[in-house]
Sequence to fold (500 residues):
Amino acid sequence: MKEVLYSSTRDNSKKVQASKAILKGLSEDGGLFVPDSIPELDKTLKELAEMNYQEIAYEVMKLFLTDFTEEELKDCISRAYDSKFDTEEIAPLVWADGAYYLELFHGATIAFKDMALSILPHLMITSAKKNNVKEQIVILTATSGDTGKAALAGFADVEGTKIIVFYPKNGVSPIQEKQMVTQKGKNTAVIGIHGNFDDAQTGVKQIFSDKELEKELREQGYIFSSANSINIGRLVPQIVYYVYAYAKLLGEEKISEGEKINVVVPTGNFGNILAAFYAKNMGLPIAKLICASNENKVLYDFFKTGNYNRNREFVLTSSPSMDILISSNLERLIYRIAGNDAVKNAELMSALSGGGSYQISDEMKAQLTDFYGNYASEEETSDRIKELYDNTGYVIDTHTAVASSVYEKYKKDTHDETKTVIASTASPFKFTRSVMNAIDKKYDSMPDFELVDELSKIGNVEVPMAIEEIRTAPVLHNIVCDKSEMKKTVKDILGSSMED
Ligand SMILES: *Cc1c(COP(=O)(O)O)cnc(C)c1O
Fold:
């Protein structure tokens, strides 16, 4: 098998093995690790169609994580994709109203982040062993709501690690917040910040590139890593479910071998859709990558004009996990369409952090034809939830509804009849209030957990364990800090309150 090495999008003179890239998370120069080539699938689609989720996970991940042994990788996979998921299929496909919904929310925290964050701790611990790391790994994470809980659940009580999560105090759903602040585990910390997700993400990136702090903490026996989607250890497991979805459709004879499908992804930080792009580049027959945004439509504007501009009002929407103006993973695509030119990419990224915008060249823009971007307003999102429910009885969450609504626009725009998979990124139970209000305004006055039971009734689905658990769980985390105090808060936490 061809060895795949990783280099930074801002300086590709140095290359590291996958396990080193996973341990570091973000490169020292602020860039993201990218594979030096995208490997091709070495099994036929027919062969993949015979496999289960865990087997496909191995076939995909072995091609990227080439310094992991077969035993190591299979061990990580079997620990991750087990009974934490409430279905053996791991990621079931549901047909509704003209599209296949790929349900990525059957893991412990009922959002698609579980797909990668249930394996990341195992990849990280394995990487630490392989590299003789003696320090405790401190996972620092900024969350727009779902990553935080999924990372907490993944790393809680994992030996040799601590996890600190920052979330925007007023920018997540009540259930998302309750899920996080009730997290158990001696090695966990959860902090609300006065600021939005971009502030949290920027703060975490600054802590990562703070050399002095790094030295100070290393002396205390700590090193930092990241559970955000900038970590290659999250991106690679996300490629798996696109291959799995295709294999399932082929196995069930819904498509013929080699037939192209479209993929629609509700997008925030651009991690999930980038994974689909990598899957396509591995040889998976994907036609269009449809990038769906909510009212924070930076990406829609970017695909239309080639201009990325974050200088705009940050809108708090009913799909908070997509309320993002700086889509970190887009950098990996920019690097690629710049011809793997790290200098050019670094220039654009410095324009982004300086003036808040950059413009790509016509040559670069010409390489974006695989992508179609559009967005859904708050009203369109809620209308789509109701429409789909009225037509089919199927209830989707607000993020998935953004994707579904954009897919309807895409069909109107293009008359493209290609079979399509919509990434369904969260359980409707995670955003119960918005979902139920979309279906009928009469639910507005009902308390949160009554709404949960009502959703269970009208949608004819059991209340997920993740929700049952937090009904009565005590709040264990209550730190709130200003966005300017994140570094100090991290030092305080590592210096005292957590036990070793
Ligand atoms: C994180 C998240 C998204 C956005 O995914 P990205 O990889 O950041 O683009 C969409 N929907 C839900 C429910 C999420 O949790």
Notes: The chain has 22 helices and 16 strands. The chain has a mean pLDDT of 95. Residues 232-251 form the longest helix (20 residues).
